[in-house]
From TrEMBL, chain A:
Residues 2-99 form the Ig-like domain. This is IGL c2713_light_IGKV1-12_IGKJ4. One of its GO terms (biological process) is adaptive immune response. GO terms for cellular component: extracellular region; immunoglobulin complex; plasma membrane. It is found in: Cell membrane; Secreted.
Amino acid sequence: DIQMTQSPSSVSASVGDRVTITCRASQGISSWLAWYQQKPGKAPKLLIYAASSLQSGVPSRFSGSGSGTDFTLTISSLQPEDFATYYCQQANSFPRTFGGGTKVEIK
Amino acid sequence: EVQLVESGGGLVQPGGSLRLSCAASGFTFSSYEMNWVRQAPGKGLEWVSYISSSGSTIYYADSVKGRFTISRDNAKNSLYLQMNSLRAEDTAVYYCARDRMVRGVFEPGADYWGQGTLVTVSS
């Protein structure tokens, strides 16, 4: 199985900050990666698909990059509604494993 | 409007069974691959199972293999998860999620999720 390791597990940031979250796969997955945002009590929301493509309706301050084993989700200017937990998920092979999550908290 | 609505969750004793349903609307259900994903209280997301659009290809997480069965009825626009031999560690919110597909081709990501249904396994 492919293991997905996210870092950091949590980050404290202020409105307007640039935030970067990293996801590393235990083996190469090309661009078969998605990023999700989840708020408490809500279902996950797709932000980025195929490693770097912005899902329709998602603000352009979110961006994804990487291929192979190393991936990054960047929020260019953190907004109040962005405080949430973020997950990466590989879709290269089954089981489609998720990273452990990164909680973005208010500083 | 795309909608996925799960139902069937509840309290069940260890060793018991439960069948979850996911009613789909607002899109051509038979054209989409579907998944079940779960989240234990206070924990992260765990992918559980996948089924192809026709139902001919199925995968499971090792943690549920042999105990859970995914199925679909394209005529009824519905996805199911039959859960047998339930354990305390199966306690979670269960989500159904639609694979993102463009012109029949999967693009890595699940673009629509239901609101989730809570399954509690306890005596």
